[in-house]
Every structure is written in structure tokens, then in C-alpha cells.
Write a structure and sequence with these properties.
alpha+beta, Creatine Amidinohydrolase, 5-stranded antiparallel β-sheet, 4-stranded antiparallel β-sheet, 14 strands, globular, binds 2-amino-4-trifluoromethylsulfanyl-butyric acid, binds cobalt (II) ion, EC 3.4.11.18, Pept_M24
Length: 259
């Protein structure tokens, strides 16, 4: 039987450290991504920071049913029409590219997972800015809705309302998830849901909330690498993710970017 993990106080302290590490690495990588940066360098930098911190990659040996063989890399780098599970490859970032970085690591036995989308260089296409902002607002709405006694459907509904309210189609094949001793756990957190339905959240539960959208389609295609998921129409995409802990009085974001 698959179980929903509830963390005790000591595990929650470790989860905070895992979350801070993921946030720190992502913030550093985001700063380093400029015009001319190669995605393979981003992967090398991620690897070095994970090892340096004494943490383990949740990705390198990961071989789920939705990918071909082990992922083999340390971070997901998804550019423009690529939205999820972007496998780092020999590609140089250009002015105006929309990059999504998604990182999960395990430190002292607890995993944390976060993703950020941003534009490279000085060109800021309005539609891309809107896509990114929408996933951020959806994530904030999901976090604001989460708390003890709240139903999973309430969180999904809060996320989905922002995404569809902005006019984007929503794909429900991939969404958020429980996280703890491993990266992907029960429950699944779809980015659309019905209020008042589903599992009742409890203090000590860790969730990764991850709204993502594609401009004009809800259909994904898998790239030739067997991993990278792209929009079926070639349109641009965005993704925002935080790991949160349900506490006695609300939700605590564990992967907030350092100031
Ligand atoms: N961290 C991703 C998520 O947000 C999963 C990436 S799986 C990988 O759930 F194998 F592609 F890395
Ligand atoms: Co995730």
C-alpha cells in the first residue's frame, strides 16, 4: 500500500535545510544563466553544488515510467517550448529565451523540490512574461489555500482557477506531489481540482506544488531524448514550484529564494 508520509519535528528541521539548499542552488544557477550559457554547464554547476553540500541528486539515477532509463543529469533545463523534465544537452541560451530550471535534492534523507522560470538577456516578450507571472500567481494561490484540515481539491482548485482564469488550457497528466524521504510520493496534486474533495491535509505533510502552463495547448510531446516534455504546438511554456510543509496554522514555504 502506498502511504502518505507525515514528518515529525526533527524531520521537519531537516526538510527546512533541504529546502534552503535547493533554493540557494537554484538562485545561483538562475544568476549564472545569461546569453551564451550552455545547458551542460548549468548541469555541471548543479552537480558541483550538490556534491559540495554533501547532498544527493534525486534525478541522476531516477528511472520512472515517464522517462527513458535513468535521467543521468542533476537538473532539469527546459527552454521555450520545453516545459518539464528538460534533459540538459548542448544548447546555448540566447537573448529572450524562457528558461525553466527544476531541481530536487535530498539532504540527510529528506528531499526538496523547486522550479523557477525566467527570461534570459534583455528581451522580455510580453506573452512570456505573462506566462511566467501566471504560474507564480497560481503557486502563491495554492500556498495561500494550503493548511491543516484543507482538502487537496481546495489547493488544486486555487491553482487551477488562476491558470484557467488567465486563459490557459491546463494539463493534468503532471502536477504536484507529496515529498519527504523520496521526491515523488502520494498524494498527487493536480493543477485543477474540485473544492472540498480529496485528502485532508495534516501538519507534517510536505507537498511540492507545481503549476505549469503552455500558451495555447494542453498537449505534451516527448522529445527524442525520451525525457524532455514539449508543448505539442511549439508554443512557449512556464513552470513554478515550491516545496511546502503543512504546519499547525498554515503552510510554510521551504524553498524560498535567499535574499
Ligand atoms: N522535479 C521534477 C518535479 O517537479 C521531476 C523531475 S524528474 C527527472 O516533479 F527525472 F526528470 F528529473
Ligand atoms: Co516536483
Amino acid at each position: 500500500m502506498r502511504m502518505i508520509e507525515i514528518l515529525d519535528a526533527g524531520e521537519l528541521r531537516r526538510a527546512r535545510r533541504s529546502g534552503a539548499l535547493v533554493a540557494d542552488i537554484l538562485a545561483t544557477l538562475r544568476d549564472r544563466c545569461t546569453v551564451g550559457t550552455n545547458l551542460l554547464d548549468v548541469d555541471r554547476w548543479a552537480k558541483a553544488m550538490i556534491i559540495d553540500a554533501g547532498a544527493q541528486s534525486c534525478y541522476v539515477d531516477y528511472a520512472p515510467s515517464f522517462g527513458r532509463g535513468p535521467f543521468g543529469h542533476y537538473i532539469c533545463t527546459s527552454v521555450n517550448d520545453a516545459v518539464l523534465h528538460g534533459r540538459p544537452h548542448d544548447q546555448v541560451l540566447a537573448d529572450g529565451d524562457l528558461v525553466s530550471l527544476d531541481l530536487a535534492v535530498s539532504l540527510d534523507g529528506i528531499a526538496a523540490d523547486s522550479a523557477v522560470s525566467f527570461l534570459v538577456g534583455d528581451t522580455r516578450p510580453a506573452e512570456s512574461v505573462a506566462l511566467i507571472e501566471t504560474t507564480r500567481r497560481a503557486l502563491a494561490a495554492g500556498i495561500a489555500a494550503a493548511g491543516p484540515g484543507v482538502r487537496l481539491g481546495d489547493v488544486s482548485h486555487a491553482i487551477g482557477t488562476v491558470l484557467s482564469g488567465a486563459g490557459y488550457p491546463v494539463n493534468t497528466e503532471f502536477g504536484g506531489h507529496g515529498i519527504g524521504s523520496t521526491m515523488h510520493q502520494e498524494p498527487h496534486v493536480p493543477n485543477l481540482g474540485r473544492p472540498g474533495r480529496g485528502y485532508r491535509l495534516r501538519p507534517g505533510l510536505l507537498l511540492a506544488l507545481e503549476p505549469w502552463v503552455m500558451t495555447d495547448t494542453d498537449e505534451l510531446v516527448t522529445a527524442e531524448d525520451g525525457w524532455t516534455l514539449r508543448s505539442a504546438t511549439g508554443c512557449r511554456t512556464a513552470h513554478s514550484e515550491h516545496t511546502i510543509a503543512i504546519t499547525e496554522d498554515g503552510a510554510e514555504v521551504l524553498t524560498l529564494a535567499p535574499r
